[in-house]
Amino acid sequence: ASKESGGNIFKFYSNISKFSIPNKMKLEHGMHKALENKEFMLYYQPKVCAKTGEVSGAEALIRWKHPEDGMIMPDQFISLAEESGLIVPIGEWVLRKACSQLKEWKSKGYPLSRVSVNCSILQFQQVEMPDLINRVLQETGIGPECLELEITESMIMKDSERIISQLLKIRGIGVNVSIDDFGKGYSSLSALKGLPVTCLKIDRSFINNIPDDRHNVAVVEAIIKLAHNIGLGVVAEGVETLDNVNALKTMECDEFQGYYFEKPLPHDKFVQFLMQTHKWVELV
Ligand code: C2E
Ligand code: MG
Ligand code: MG
Ligand code: MG
């Protein structure tokens, strides 16, 4: 079949599914039921402010608590949810859940100002996406500045006109947008200028071996300088060691996220964590 597709060979391969048909049907059916039966849940991982050492926000990360198979991680089902279109209702659930959770925490006085939600390209391609965001903000009663959407470079590269027009509307609402896994997608740094986003999240593959890897130090340094020059904030993801932290501090990275601080936690554990009023003194 690859021969027949001729000049379209890349298209062919990019459309190929990593799931076999029976597995696919089973998993798709399972995801439908999971939505109905409320088997999805959100874990939360803190983001830490480099200047104050305090928690500045949290990223919501989906988990599937399957009744028979136990906990299923997003890497095992998000791509099929995208293939099948189910990511649209799943993503809507994630958005609503994260916003209403933040509202509840805020009303209880827990110190958390912002929640970040991962978005798939399919959600962004829905014309009504900006309306949906508006509606969810209204329903849950959190301000737009309390919400951040995480998108990837590859989304912008795949369908840039449409994605940028949606980004403009979403930024118009006042919602923050960060580019996740930045550096992995080979988009040129200059292409960033003028993009309607607020923040770059540097991919963890550049972070977890600094300062030992001199090459990555140079890359991270360049990304941070450029981001600041064009008015964007910078988050480092996958921060695992104090050496990583110190290197990033020196490079004036704005926020950190990673196992060094805390892993993603389910609701109750995350609340416990917030109650302990964390402050990382090594940052101050
Ligand atoms: P991501 O958005 O880049 O999320 C960061 C991932 O890195 C999370 O994996 C997190 O648990 C992991 N991580 C955090 N700190 C560290 C660290 O210090 N070291 C290492 N090695 N890993 C760390 P997770 O939760 O398995 O999520 C994987 C990916 O699945 C996410 O990557 C995101 O692309 C996707 N995803 C998760 N939740 C959602 C969702 O609600 N919607 C969509 N569309 N995608 C989601
Ligand atoms: Mg993310
Ligand atoms: Mg990421
Ligand atoms: Mg990542």
Automatic annotation (TrEMBL):
<feature type="domain" description="EAL">
    <location>
        <begin position="24"/>
        <end position="278"/>
    </location>
</feature>
<protein>
    <submittedName>
        <fullName>Diguanylate cyclase/phosphodiesterase</fullName>
    </submittedName>
</protein>
